[in-house]
Amino acid sequence: MIHRPLGLLLEEHPYVDTFLKENNIPVEGNQERSINDIIGGMSAETAEEFAFEIESLEQNLNLFITQMKEFLNEGADEVSSITIYPGTDKSGAPEGFDRLELKTGQIISIVGPTGSGKSRLLADIEWVAQKDTPTNRTIFVNDDIPESKWRFSISDKLVAQLSQNMNFVMDLSVEEFVRLHAESRMLEDIDTVVTHIIEKGNDLAGEKFQPDTPITSLSGGQSRALMIADTAVLSRSPVILIDEIENAGIDRKRALDLLLSEDKIVLMATHDPVLALLGDKRLVIQNGGIAKVIETTEEERSILVELEVLDARTNHLRNLLRNGERLHENR
Amino acid sequence: MNLVTVSGPPSSGKTSVILKTLAALDKRSVKPAVVKFDCLYTDDDLLYEKAGIPVKKGLSGSLCPDHYFVSNIEAVVDWGLDSEYDLLISESAGLCNRCSPYIKGIKAVCVIDNLSGINTPKKIGPMLKTADIIVITKGDIVSQAEREVFASRVQAVNPRAVILNVNGLTGQGCYELSTLLYDEGNHITSLKGMELRFSMPSALCSYCLGEKRIGESYQMGNVRKIDLKESVSNDT
Ligand SMILES: Nc1nc2c(ncn2[C@@H]2O[C@H](COP(=O)(O)OP(=O)(O)OP(=O)(O)O)[C@@H](O)[C@H]2O)c(=O)[nH]1
Ligand SMILES: Nc1ncnc2c1ncn2[C@@H]1O[C@H](COP(=O)(O)OP(=O)(O)O)[C@@H](O)[C@H]1O
Ligand SMILES: [Mg+2]
Ligand SMILES: [Mg+2]
Ligand SMILES: [Zn+2]
Ligand SMILES: [Zn+2]
């Protein structure tokens, strides 16, 4: 690989572009030359400054190409279930279930007091625990012992997580940002994907934003909406974890629909009654263990409707106050 | 005793991650110690002491801390062996972006944070390129998308490393990291005959050694001159 002219190399493996850039190997004007020529032609000083070493570059390039090929060849929807086998709670007592299977298309809420172990359960799933976490739980993927790639691969992570604290830090516009992300996922039709994400984000956000809005100036609700749309469309991870996400300013139900529509398992740790009831079932965590698994009943779903009405009322009142108006009963 | 070298840019979260990881190892009754290498000043030793972890600190003063590291690590390892610790972690502030304190055959961890910007991976050099484990911190304050973009850049620079996202504040990921750090089968009894993974830049200049006077006749050692004739573009 390191003896092939860059032009040819890039034609065969376009993603090598990222590798060259990140390793400070100049591509421009070097189409006819190979990596070996380029490094060989450098002054000893430059080579030392950038710490180039031809053998390790060669190994890394080959490895990078293998990783990218694997990433591109695999189907996205190969995970259809996650199974949790019981471990122990904080007192070391075994958890009281035999086996818990979570399937794609399901929303699972996780409830329990602060410190009870909700985040730990999410972390067990992310790490595909094999009795090697404080809970001693075992996680299976597709009803089988998981491959190690689910633990260590960067491009093929089992889990995407929506952060609790949702800020953007990059200095880019909405469009530039989504494009950058799409590029890092090696997508083909980037323009369409970018437009799609911005559209979906706007669907979820109370107030609209433009493609050229800087991401750092998005409101809390707009940031969350964009992040959810972006994760739903671009993240290939089959499991989405939501850990006590703040929920003001977005349409929660549509957000979950969007996330689920891409064939995923959604798990959310939450104290919010609406989110808790939006789940197909809820896991009750007590003292570090899964104490109960409760299926959402019809009765609870009708209470959910009630809650949603209350919720809409709260939002309405919040907006009135925000706009400097007086409040009146029944309006 | 296991030796692990941890390095990374200033304030990337090295101490936070080490503290949380050692807390996780505590349950496995592993007896740890830490040595912190820095330039002029550090309070990290107080943090380790507070957590009950034996700690030594070395300040390199006007020398590159990694050069200082190499000249001192052997003595520190002997201290660790004499005191019968199970795991000795060296924390060094990666200040010069060109040197790295990694030793062949000794586990090398690089800690960088999501906030440092997406162009950071390509600037860091051997400290990132030759690490075995790369810990990315502060994912809690950026978006999932930013985490993915950052991690993919890191992977392009070092496809061999195990890359972990860790939260230095809550310790999420530290238990997982601890399982990769300590290895019963990887004990050392001395650093004799070992080598650095990557050479450190050759000579130092007279200013590194404390020279203050400006002028050609005071410049010694590895001195390089700026080229003002052409418009220089460093954008390689
Ligand atoms: N939000 C957030 N803050 C973090 C995280 N990890 C570390 N920090 C904070 O970042 C700051 C620097 O962390 P340290 O652990 O002292 O960093 P360091 O790399 O040891 O710093 P030096 O030894 O001085 O180079 C502290 O205020 C930490 O609390 C993280 O994952 N998330
Ligand atoms: N089954 C368990 N055994 C031992 N420790 C546990 C267990 N479950 C949780 N913990 C620990 O308890 C603490 C609090 O758990 P966490 O998941 O952060 O709670 P929550 O997210 O519900 O507030 C963490 O340090 C976690 O590692
Ligand atoms: Mg939590
Ligand atoms: Mg520190
Ligand atoms: Zn140096
Ligand atoms: Zn100097």
Biggest chain pair interface: A-B, 52 and 46 residues
Helical proportion of chain A?
Answer: 40-55%
CATH architecture of the largest domain in chain A: 3-Layer(aba) Sandwich
Report the biggest beta sheet of chain B as strand number plus sense, adding barrel if it closes. Answer: 7 strands, parallel
Structural class of chain A: alpha/beta
User: Domains counted in the coordinates of chain B: how many?
Assistant: 1
In order across it, which strands form the biggest sheet of chain B? 3-2-4-1-5-6-7
Report mean pLDDT of chain B, rounded to a whole number.
85
Overall pLDDT metric of chain A: 87
Helix % of chain B is: 25-40%
N-to-C order of helices and strands of chain B: EHEHEHEEHHEHEH
Number of strands of chain A: 9
Q: Terminal Cα separation of chain B, in Å? A: 42 Å
What is the C-level CATH assignment of the largest domain in chain A? Alpha Beta
Rg of chain A over CA atoms, rounded to whole Å, is 24 Å
Cross-sheet strand order for the largest sheet of chain A:
5-6-7-3-8-9
- How does CATH name the architecture of chain B? 3-Layer(aba) Sandwich
CATH superfamily of the largest domain in chain A: P-loop containing nucleotide triphosphate hydrolases
Question: How many domain modules of chain A?
Answer: 3
User: Main sheet of chain A, how many strands, which sense, barrel?
Assistant: 6 strands, mixed
